[in-house]
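Researcher: I'd like a structural prediction for the single chain below. Treat it as a standalone chain; there are no partners to consider.
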Amino acid sequence: MSCGSPACSGAALSGKAKVAKAPAGKSVIVIAGEDSNDCRALEILIRELQPSLKSKLVRISDPVRLKTATEGNLSQRIRTIVNKAKARAARDRARLSGIILHEDLDAPTGPHYSAVRSRLADALAKHSPCGTALALAAEETEAWLLLFPDAFPHVHPGWSVPAQLRGKDTGTIKGPKELLKKKLGTPIYRESEGPDIMLAAQQSGLLVSPVGTNQSYLDFVADLNDLRVG
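Model: Treating it as a single chain, here is the predicted structure.
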């Protein structure tokens, strides 16, 4: 809009800047995570688990560091993420319809996982203006990838998930990332290949039938189902 347009003149006369409103029906879900690889893998998973989702999935670069935060720091860190999510929605001239946070727990499922997840979920719900979902991966994102072992050879033919890592409670496997590097085959697994594995699982129809279980994965799926956004 040129500064000489009638709209600009009207704003100047009233002394108030006009704020652009989001087009009707346009909405975004903001994803924040530890790194871009995790967020990309999460996007693929979300689209598969919620095929009717109409909201645009967007990412913000603010790294998520919540699991070890003190009470005061936790509230502040979540408010920072929420404010950045609002700003991203405003930049896209869209309604903020959801916030999804990802962080690796670096610990197995169990009482500690349940306590940390409850604490983070409560704080997130308290400060968020919209629906939320928490992907607190136990022990780490690679444990979720192990739920889809037949996807790995689609990324590299030389890869094969060994029997001792198949059909397990992957949330209790210690150090799944290092195990993949040691036992998967050649080439050596890299974190940057996580999204490729998730995409291969999606394209092969594997995401609908996990092999094994992981409570942190099931909790995230439940959060997504409760999000109920357009």
